[in-house]
Design a protein that fits this description.
Layout (H helix, E strand, L loop, with lengths): L2 H29 L7 E7 L17 H6 L5 E7 L6 H10 L18 H8 L7 E5 L22 E4 L11 H13 L5 E6 L1 H7 L3 H23 L8 E6 L21 H4 E7 L7 E3 L3 E2 L1 H10 L20
Helix pairs in contact: 3-9, 6-7
The structure holds zinc ion (2 copies).
Length: 321
């Protein structure tokens, strides 16, 4: 071998080793990225239209979120339910990362395992470390899946409907009280909360109470964030996602705000406000993101794998990205 080609070969090998070295450390840095967040809470305000939330530039029905909480986190103005725009399918999109047409009466389990199950399994957590607290009893199905490898395994605790009995609909006051009971006790590290009043008054064709309920939810999430930031156990250790399962028909389309369930702009356009110690503050993202991305983002934040999720990590949320 000529000295020149020896040199070339050595250089090639060195470059190769260097590239491997870089690849190893850059991939390692993704996995070993340290996050401050320890607790994750998803609050689902069930069924308001974007036109009454952040789509109204005065945010008059959500003054706390629209004027105060937006400064504390990242607001997505083009957030979507791109699957069936019903309650159960909207929630399972978030928790399984897959859009599925599923009984909206709670008669069927989701096809895919959830963030709750992946988290409990991979992190070897007790079921009491994960809670689903929902005003709607039928949302108990979020705790399980029909996937044969996961059915009845690694299930979170559910407290849904009247007295947590998984039946009927409970008031949002009961749900909120349960959330504070958990926060004040052995707090679960992952929790999903559903508040129903906005949706219920929408279906009842009660415009005034629909709006009043939205204002109440705005106060509930504001108080929750104040509680978190005022408590050393949670302050700068808690991530809060505030979103919706679906919107409602736009005015002039079918029966307008009374119902939902199709692919119209009103039903698919929802919002996400995400706050936490690892997220940027006061940022508005106009890029389209969707419900299934919540699952993958939580898996990334809480460091577990979620191979069946079809969502993407919402990288732009994170400080430094
Ligand atoms: Zn709903
Ligand atoms: Zn619609």
């Amino acid at each position: 071998m000529q000295p020149n080609s020896m040199l070339m070969k050595n250089r090639f090998q060195l470059n190769y080793i260097f590239a491997l070295f870089l690849a190893f450390f850059s991939s390692k840095s993704v996995y070993s990225q340290e996050f401050k967040s320890e607790y994750t809470i998803i609050v689902v305000i069930d069924g308001p239209r974007y036109t009454e939330t952040f789509g109204d530039s005065t945010c008059k029905y959500i003054p706390n979120m629209g004027k105060s909480l937006v400064k504390e986190g990242v607001l997505y103005t083009n957030f979507r339910n791109n699957g069936p725009t019903f309650t159960i399918s909207g929630h399972t999109a978030m928790t399984t990362g897959v859009y599925q047409s599923i009984s909206n009466a709670g008669k069927k389990l989701p096809d895919n395992p959830s963030i709750f199950q992946y988290y409990i399994k991979e992190k070897n957590r007790d079921k009491s470390d994960v809670y689903v607290v929902a005003s709607k009893g039928k949302l108990e199905v979020l705790g399980n899946t029909s996937d044969k490898d996961w059915w009845n395994c690694y299930m979170p605790i559910t407290y849904c409907g009247v007295n947590g009995q998984s039946t009927e609909y409970a008031g949002d006051l009961q749900t909120t009280n349960k959330v504070y009971e958990l926060l004040n006790g052995k707090t679960p590290h992952l929790m999903l909360v559903n508040l129903l009043a906005v949706d219920s008054y929408g279906h009842a064709n009660n415009w005034d109470q629909y709006l009043a309920s939205l204002q109440k939810c705005d106060t509930i999430v504001y108080n929750l964030w104040q509680y978190i930031q005022g408590n050393p156990k949670f302050k700068d250790k808690t991530t809060l996602f505030i979103t919706n399962d679906h919107g409602r028909h736009l005015d002039g389309h079918k029966d307008g705000f009374v119902n939902h369930g199709d692919k119209c702009e009103g039903c698919t356009h929802i919002s996400l406000l995400a706050m936490g110690p690892d997220f940027k503050k006061g940022v508005v993202v106009t890029k389209e993101r969707e419900l299934i991305d919540i699952s993958k983002t939580i898996a990334f934040l809480m460091k577990f794998n979620m191979p069946s999720s079809k969502g993407e990590v919402m990288d732009e949320l994170f400080i430094g990205k």
